[in-house]
Design a protein that fits this description.
Length: 368
């Protein structure tokens, strides 16, 4: 069983400027055997530190880490049965690809026949057979990335750890490698822990995602759950692109009153769910894809029409992003590319309020 357990893990760094700085503030979770889990969050949220603590490259200040059935707190990285793939690949430039792949096993003094068999199997899985005698500089970025993954595969570890492995690749190659990594996970049936700051990468790769902010876990859930039921404003704003719109509102008589004297009629279940907020402020969250131009608003269940002046239009080919203001906030709508809109035009938008979320402005937790 190659599960990974974090039991109340804290990591504090001694920092001259910040004093005792808490990078990870008491994290607890279990990554199940064969699961693909992604740590995601903005720069500095503690995801790399968490990964490095699993690897044993960083020592936690308190708490226990388990890999398989063992507490590994005091084990050296090489004794943890993990393999890590880094952002910069860390290949040996003077060695051939075959030598790069063999290096770790040779160091472990494995028999030659076993090394050849494992290198052969990894290179077949990753499509590296024709490149084994080349040097890393003779490979493309994507191919080098595959060699880095191959070096991890030959070690046959209990757990694979990936630290932003695709961030040095161009956008097209990143998408291709994303698909390859997903397939690889299925084929190897391995436990994978993967760090990225890119929410699209997290959503497409992770079976479950751990969303972190400022050293604190915000939510652990499968991608669709994060998207449909974010636990707070941070997760709601971080997952999804473009980000969810937040509109300040006050609940009055079953309506959400927003800036400029406008009010939104709310679906019955929302009115019921917000009864405790009568007369109080809330934040209404609605994703750009749940706002339509009136001309393309078919089958919107709880539609609410809103006229607003168009500020900016971004044409992305498959869709247009249209920006307009509600009160103090700029709102983004992701609309059909043939939706007619011109800058300055007073346009009617249709909001699907059945998809809206409501947050408590003080705690930022989701109410509904
Ligand atoms: P990024 O995406 O930028 O790599 P991250 O989420 O991986 O960010 P970490 O590298 O885990 O973040 O860092 C978490 C926090 O701990 C940051 O504020 C960072 O400055 C701090 N930190 C990391 N390593 C050290 C260190 N050796 N000494 C002091 N502070 C550190």
């Amino acid at each position: 069983m190659a599960r990974v357990v974090f039991d109340n893990i804290r990591k504090e760094y001694e920092d001259e400027k910040r004093g005792n700085f808490t990078a990870v503030a008491g994290s607890s979770f279990t990554i199940e055997d064969k699961e693909f889990v992604v740590f995601v969050g903005p720069s500095g949220c503690g995801k790399t530190t968490s990964l490095r603590m699993i690897a044993g490259l960083e020592k936690q200040t308190s708490g226990d880490i388990m890999i398989g059935d063992r507490i590994v707190n005091h084990l050296h990285p090489k004794d943890r049965d993990i393999a890590m793939v880094f952002q910069d690949y860390a290949l040996y430039p003077h060695m051939t690809i075959r030598e790069n792949l063999s290096f770790g096993l040779k160091n472990l003094k494995r028999p030659t026949a076993e090394i050849e068999q494992k290198v052969g199997a990894a290179s077949a899985i990753l499509g590296l057979d024709d490149m084994l005698e080349r040097k890393p500089r003779e490979l493309s970025g994507g191919q080098r990335q595959r060699v880095a993954v191959g070096r991890a595969i030959v070690r046959d570890p209990q757990v694979f750890l990936f630290d932003e492995p695709l961030s040095n690749l161009d956008a097209k190659l990143r998408i291709q490698m994303r698909v390859e990594l997903s397939e690889l996970h299925k084929r190897l049936g391995a436990t994978i822990v993967y760090v990225t700051h890119d929410q699209v990468e997290a959503m497409t790769l992770g079976e479950r995602i751990v969303v972190m902010n400022k050293g604190v876990i915000q939510q652990i859930a499968p991608p669709t759950e994060l998207y449909n039921n974010p636990s707070n404003m941070f997760v709601a704003g971080f997952i999804g692109s473009p980000a969810m719109n937040f509109i300040d509102a006050v609940i009055e008589g079953g309506k959400a009153v927003v800036g400029g004297g406008r009010s939104f009629d709310l679906p019955a279940h929302v009115v019921q769910g917000l009864r405790a907020y009568e007369g109080k402020p809330v934040v209404l969250g609605i994703r750009p894809e749940h706002i339509f131009g009136e001309d393309f608003a078919l089958h919107v269940p709880h539609d609410h029409k809103l006229a607003a002046a168009v500020q900016v239009i971004e044409n992305l080919g498959s869709e247009n992003l249209v920006y307009f203001r509600v009160g103090e906030r700029t709102v983004t709508a992701k609309v059909h590319p043939e939706t007619s809109a011109t800058i300055g035009q007073l346009k009617t938008f249709v909001l699907d309020l059945s998809k809206a979320h409501f947050f408590d402005p003080a705690s930022e937790e989701r109410i509904l």
